């Protein structure tokens, strides 16, 4: 079988050429995450331009990749932040993102987190249940403040994505029904401690079909019209995140079609659009580099054992997610192999049944599209230090997070 890997590599785009990756490895070893900041800029600008015709704010979803350097970079592009914990809010602020561009979402917020969000004066809190609304009201009252809120409405639409990352159906734990949302808005309007200023929906992640988003936006826009008729002043129309990317060769949504569908749905409404993209901004901008330890055959099945593992990049193990694997080696002949890590679990793999050339100790594999939900979901399982992270900008390599060493791993433990 012919090796198409070398040809695939330029799909990494711009600065992440093999030479740069090899230089990064020389300096910082493997396993390693490398991010292309120029590509992040390009993705951010694409989305920003697509919504250009309307008032809009892009609130980057930190959960996809919350490295402070990436956040600082996005802040320099004027991005806001979608946060799901006090930790993420603090990260956004530390990167310089002003509180008026920060929104706070999540299905279970702690009292302290709500308190801090109100005290910090963030743009609004996305509320996910009546119970939570009452809690926020109580905390705001105790603080003698008014909490700006938006309600996450579950439009009950199938997003046609992986069930683990689908959130817009009634059977999911996220948001409230249209009927409940109405009652919550009326309650908020009548409260001294709550100010309802937004409406929110997010139906899932890695969305590659426009129709479910379009349908949801129309449903939520129609609810917005009826709220405005009730003199509830909705200023922000928060469409969530979820825009899918290409991992293999799947067709996904063009940002202009996406924006157009949203703009069509909100015709007649004077609202600022808020969008919460994570994966779209950073997913294809990152690559995970791992080194081959050795190859082995078990009953004629080929395994390529590498130094990266499920604790570094859990998406294949957790969702059976596909990440393209490219060998930084120019050999013509390839055969099928499973790329597996050293962790003691059968589920520890990075790729299954992929065509790769014969590999030797020290050869490098690039696992593509690892910029989103890669490092941010990594762990210390098997007492493995988390990887170093590198940013590349204008062809220059910069360390943006050191590799964790043994001392880092045991620092908080007491004997
Ligand atoms: N807004 C809300 C309310 C969300 O729940 C999420 C993602 C986003 C925005 C950003 O979604 P994105 O634009 O990145 O698709 N770990 C999974 C993805 C989980 C997504 C959770 N919520 C994965 O690796 O595929």
Automatic annotation (TrEMBL):
It catalyses: meso-2,6-diaminopimelate + H(+) = L-lysine + CO2. Residues 33-371 form the Orn/DAP/Arg decarboxylase 2 C-terminal domain. Pyridoxal 5'-phosphate binds at residues 242, 276-279, 373. GO terms for molecular function: diaminopimelate decarboxylase activity. Keywords: Amino-acid biosynthesis, Decarboxylase, Lyase, Lysine biosynthesis, Pyridoxal phosphate. Its EC number is 4.1.1.20. Residues 37-283 form the Orn/DAP/Arg decarboxylase 2 N-terminal domain. Its cofactor is pyridoxal 5'-phosphate. Pathway: Amino-acid biosynthesis; L-lysine biosynthesis via DAP pathway; L-lysine from DL-2,6-diaminopimelate: step 1/1. The keyword Lyase applies. Substrate binds at residues 279, 315, 319, 345, 373. InterPro entries: Ala_racemase/Decarboxylase_C, DAP_deCOOHase_LysA, De-COase2_C, De-COase2_N, De-COase2_pyr-phos_BS, Orn/DAP/Arg_de-COase, PLP-binding_barrel. The modification N6-(pyridoxal phosphate)lysine is found at residue 63. It is an enzyme of class 4 (lyase). Homodimer. Belongs to the Orn/Lys/Arg decarboxylase class-II family. LysA subfamily. Specifically catalyzes the decarboxylation of meso-diaminopimelate (meso-DAP) to L-lysine. This is Diaminopimelate decarboxylase. It comes from Helicobacter ibis. The gene is lysA.
């Amino acid at each position: 079988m012919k090796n198409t890997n070398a040809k695939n590599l330029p799909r990494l785009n711009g600065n992440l050429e093999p030479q740069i990756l090899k230089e990064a490895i020389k300096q910082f070893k493997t396993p390693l995450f490398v991010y292309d900041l120029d590509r992040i800029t390009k993705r951010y600008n694409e989305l920003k331009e697509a919504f250009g015709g309307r008032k809009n704010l892009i609130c980057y979803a930190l959960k996809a990749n919350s490295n402070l350097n990436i956040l600082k970079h996005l802040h320099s592009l004027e991005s806001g932040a979608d946060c799901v914990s006090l930790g993420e809010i603090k990260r956004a602020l530390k990167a310089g993102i002003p509180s008026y561009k920060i929104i706070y979402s999540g299905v279970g917020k702690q009292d302290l987190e709500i308190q801090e969000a109100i005290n910090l004066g963030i743009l609004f809190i996305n509320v996910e249940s009546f119970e939570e609304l009452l809690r926020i009201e109580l905390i705001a009252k105790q603080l003698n403040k008014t909490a700006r809120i938006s309600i996450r409405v579950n439009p009950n639409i199938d997003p046609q994505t992986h069930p683990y990352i689908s959130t817009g159906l009634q059977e999911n734990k996220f948001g409230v029904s249209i009927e409940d949302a109405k009652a919550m808005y009326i309650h908020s309007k009548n409260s001294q401690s709550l100010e309802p200023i937004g409406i929110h929906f997010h139906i899932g992640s890695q969305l590659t079909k426009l129709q479910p988003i379009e349908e949801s936006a129309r449903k939520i826009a129609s609810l917005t019209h009826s709220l405005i008729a009730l003199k509830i002043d909705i200023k922000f129309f928060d469409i969530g995140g979820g825009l899918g990317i290409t991992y293999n060769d799947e067709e996904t949504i063009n940002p202009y079609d996406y924006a157009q569908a949203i703009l069509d749905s909100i015709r007649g409404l004077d609202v600022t659009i808020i969008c919460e993209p994570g994966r779209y901004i950073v997913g294809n901008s990152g690559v995970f580099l791992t080194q081959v330890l050795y190859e082995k055959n078990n009953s004629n099945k080929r395994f390529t054992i590498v130094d990266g593992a499920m604790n570094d990049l859990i998406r294949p193990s957790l969702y059976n997610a596909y990440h393209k694997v490219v060998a930084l080696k120019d050999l013509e002949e390839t055969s099928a192999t499973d790329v597996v890590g050293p962790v003691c679990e059968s589920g520890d793999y990075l790729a299954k049944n992929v065509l790769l050339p014969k590999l030797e100790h020290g050869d490098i594999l690039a696992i593509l599209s690892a910029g989103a939900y890669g490092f941010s979901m990594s762990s210390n399982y098997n007492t493995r230090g988390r990887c170093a992270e590198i940013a590349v900008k204008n062809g220059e390599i910069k360390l943006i997070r050191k590799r964790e060493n043994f001392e880092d791993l045991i620092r908080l433990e007491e004997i």
